[in-house]
UniProtKB/TrEMBL annotation:
EC number(s) per entry: 2.3.1.286
NCBIfam families listed in its UniProt record: PRK00481.1-1 (NF001752), PRK00481.1-3 (NF001753)
Cofactors, names only: Zn(2+)
Organism: Gordonibacter pamelaeae
Keyword line: Cytoplasm, Metal-binding, NAD, Transferase, Zinc
Top-level EC class as recorded in UniProt: transferase
Name recorded for this polypeptide: NAD-dependent protein deacetylase
C-alpha cells in the first residue's frame, strides 16, 4: 500500500471517528464478501467470467427460472450458495460500528447473510437472501438446508413444497424482478439522513440499487472499490483498495 492510499484510509477513519451517532451508512456490493471466499461478478475471475451453457446473467433471470427451473437450480446451487463462508474483517467492523452507535444501517446488494452472521442487526437486503426460501403457491417458508434437501429428493432437481407441490423459490431478486419496495424505501431514507456514506465493493453498475447514491446529501461520500466506478467524481474520497483492508481498524 502506497503513502497516498494510507493517507486516504487515515482520512476515512478520522471521518468515522468524527461522525455523529447514527449518521453513518454503509452501502456494499459483492466486493465486500470476496475476502470470505465468495466470488464477485465482474472481476476477471468473477462469476460472469466463468463458462456456462448460457450467460450467468441469463441463468439468474426470472424468465430463465420460469422456463428452465432444473437448470436454474443446478447453477444456483453450484455458484450462488456459499453456506460455509464466514464474515471477514469488513463485516465484523461494521457490526462493531453499529454496536457502538455510529452506524445506522447496512444497505447491501449481497444475498449471503454474512452481515447478520457477523452481528449486524439493521441490514437492508436489496436483493434478498439465499437463507430464505418460499413456496410460490402457498407461501410456506423454508430454510436453505430444507431447500437443498427438497432439491436432492426431486427427480428433476426442482425443489417442491411438500404441502402443496409448488416450486420453492429462493427469496432473492432475480434479473427482471423488481426490488422490494419497503426495503428500497428504507434504504433511501437511511442514506438521505446520513452524514457519512461509504459505498464499497460495488461497480455501481446495477440499477436501481446504484441510483441510491443520488439520495445522499451529507458531508462525506467515500467510495471503496478496486476499480473505478461511474460515480467516482461525486465522491469526497475514492479508495482503490480491498474493503477488508480499509475496515481493518
Amino acid at each position: 500500500m502506497d503513502d497516498e492510499a494510507r493517507r486516504g484510509i487515515e482520512a476515512f477513519r478520522n471521518w468515522v471517528d468524527e461522525t455523529k451517532p447514527g449518521r453513518m451508512v454503509f452501502f456494499g456490493g459483492a466486493g465486500v464478501s470476496t475476502e470470505s471466499g465468495i466470488p464477485d461478478f465482474r472481476s476477471p475471475d468473477g462469476l460472469y467470467a466463468q463458462k456456462y451453457p448460457h450467460p450467468p446473467e441469463q441463468m439468474i433471470s426470472r424468465s430463465f427460472f420460469d422456463a428452465h427451473p432444473a437448470e436454474f437450480f443446478a447453477f444456483y446451487s453450484d455458484r450462488m450458495l456459499a453456506l460455509d463462508a464466514q464474515p471477514n474483517r469488513a463485516h465484523r467492523k461494521l457490526a462493531e460500528l453499529e454496536q457502538a452507535g455510529t452506524l445506522s444501517a447496512v444497505v447491501t446488494q449481497n444475498i449471503d447473510g454474512l452481515h447478520q452472521k457477523a452481528g449486524s442487526e439493521r441490514v437492508l437486503e436489496l436483493h434478498g437472501s439465499v437463507l430464505r426460501n418460499f413456496c410460490m403457491d402457498c407461501g410456506a417458508a423454508y430454510p436453505v438446508d430444507e431447500l437443498l434437501r427438497l432439491r436432492d429428493e426431486a427427480a428433476d432437481g426442482v425443489p417442491r413444497c411438500p404441502a402443496c407441490g409448488g416450486i420453492v423459490k429462493p427469496d432473492v431478486v432475480l434479473y427482471e424482478e423488481a426490488l422490494d419496495e419497503h426495503t428500497l424505501q428504507a434504504s433511501v431514507d437511511a442514506i438521505a439522513r446520513a452524514d457519512l456514506l461509504v459505498v464499497a465493493g460495488t461497480s455501481l453498475a446495477v440499477y436501481p440499487a446504484a441510483g441510491l447514491i443520488d439520495f445522499f446529501q451529507g458531508d462525506h461520500l467515500v467510495i471503496v472499490n478496486r476499480t473505478p466506478t461511474p460515480r467516482d467524481r461525486q465522491a469526497d474520497l475514492c479508495l482503490a483498495a480491498n474493503v477488508g483492508d480499509v475496515f481493518d481498524f
